[in-house]
Structures are given as C-alpha cells and as structure tokens.
Write a structure and sequence with these properties.
The protein is α/β, with parallel strands linked by helices. It is 40% helix and 18% strand. α2 packs across α3 and α4 runs antiparallel to α6. It has eleven helices and eight strands.
Length: 271
C-alpha cells in the first residue's frame, strides 16, 4: 500500500458509483502504483484512454469513468462544470484513493486544472491534454449559432454514442455546457486557477484546427499558454504534437504517457 491510496486491489474493478441523482460507470485496474484518474473530453467515454493506459502499463493504478450521461453513466438533472469537478472527489472516495495524478483531455483538462488547483495536497500532478488554455474565445462565438449547431447534430448523437463520442443530453443541455466551458476558459477566470497550481503540471498540445474552429483560432488559443508558463514555474509545456484536437489520444498517446511518467518521477523523487 502506498501513501497515494487507502486501498488497492489486484484485479480490475468495474461498477456503477451512485452520486447525487445519478450513477457513474467507473473502472479501477487496482494495484499499488500511483493512482491516475482520467478525465474525458466533453462527449467522450472512458474507453478513449485505452491506448494511454496500455502504454503506461500495470506500473500505475488506472481509474477511468464516464461523466454524467456519457458512456454507460446515468443521466442527471445537473451537468454543470462544478458538478463535474465534484464528481472527481466522488469517484476517488468510492475507490478509497487519497491522492492521484489527474490526466484530462479537452473539457476534462479544464476539470483537471480546477481540481488540481483546489486540491494541492491530494494531487500528485496534472497532465492537461489540449485543453485548459485561457482564452476569451467565447466572445468570438455566435451563441445562437452554437445552439442551432447542437440542435442540428441531435440526430447524430445515437451514432456517436455507439462510438463512445456522444452524450444522452438534449441539444439545449449540450449547448449550455459548451457555452459554460467558454466562460470558464476566459483569461480572467482560468488564469488565476492556473496561477494557483502548486504541483507539477504538464501540457500536451495538438496542432491545427479542431471541430468548430476557424482559421488559426485554435493556435491562438494554444499560444495563451506562453504567459501561463512564464508566471507559474510548476507548469510547463511537455510537447506540441502533430495530431489534431480530435485524434491526439489515438495518435500521440505515447507522448501523453511520457508526460505522466515525468510527473510520476517527480513524485518518486519527493519521497
């Protein structure tokens, strides 16, 4: 048993964890390695991390889960960002984990950054993959156009869910969540959160555009991190990889795994 966990197992544990009015599908590989909790993208399911987990191997304890209404998790009346941050605590408590290394992609990177900033004593470190970049991109978005886009995509959700890329949320709920993420991404909101991180944090950034972005918008968003790393020595950019926002977990999983290993070595050196 390590100081990172109050309990561990030798075989994979999978169950539904009751939280408020819902239940989250959670998987825990067990073991005595550093616990790593993975935080998914906005509409992604936990299986998106399988390549990263395979690369890291059994030397780590891997904990994955589906956010509310994603993957196999149940629906809820509350899909707010604050609820998603609180659910990290619920999952770790259900597995008896006191300290963990958080790895988040896209929306999950925002969740991971907030959780690490608020819980320095419980955080081994944070890997932020193509997300948690402070930028006021929401000001450049046609809000009503965004709502119309999610309504148009409604018919596609069942197909995307079968691929682990959809949520059982209404178009309005998806739009509200997306808009809220834009407000959370504002420099005035996210900047202080990142400045407050006192554990090792590593960014893995993609290249090119992402779904819904225009021109060089995505690269301008990524460039906002230059000032973040200047202000906070605990945060560095581990790598900028050639894959894009959508396929980074599939094509550059080894780089993400290397970032996890780097932070884990820092933890080992502190013992």
């Amino acid at each position: 048993m390590t100081k990172n966990s109050t309990s561990s197992t030798d075989s994979t544990w999978t169950a539904m964890v009751p939280v408020d009015d819902t239940a989250l599908a959670v998987t825990d590989t067990g073991g005595l390695g550093i616990p790593v909790i993975y935080l998914n993208g906005h509409v992604a399911a936990q299986k998106c991390w399988r390549r990263v987990i395979a690369d890291l191997g059994p030397g780590f304890r891997h904990i994955t889960y589906d956010m509310r209404a994603r993957g196999k998790s149940k629906t809820s009346a509350d899909y707010s960002f604050e609820t998603n941050v609180a659910d990290v605590d619920a999952v770790l408590a259900a597995r008896g984990v006191e300290r963990a290394l958080v790895v988040g992609w896209s929306y999950g990177a925002f969740v991971g950054a907030h959780w690490a900033s608020r819980n320095p004593d419980r955080t081994v470190g944070a890997i932020l993959v193509e997300g948690a970049q402070p930028h006021d991109w929401i000001d450049e978005v046609d809000i009503e156009g965004m709502r119309k886009l999610w309504r148009r995509l409604g018919w596609l959700m069942p197909l995307l869910r079968s691929m682990g890329l959809g949520a059982r949320m209404t178009a309005e709920q998806m739009a509200d969540s997306n808009i809220e993420a834009g407000e959370i991404a504002r420099e005035s909101e996210l900047g202080p959160v990142l400045d407050n991180i006192t554990v090792p944090a590593r960014y893995v950034n993609a290249s090119g555009a992402s779904f819904g972005s225009k021109g060089d918008e995505q690269e301008r968003i990524r460039a906002s991190l230059d000032q973040v790393v200047k202000r906070n020595p605990n945060i560095t950019i581990h790598a900028k990889v050639p894959s894009n926002h959508g396929n980074i977990l599939r094509k550059d999983y080894h780089t993400i795994a290397d970032a996890v290993r780097e932070v884990a070595r820092h933890e080992s050196g502190q013992r």
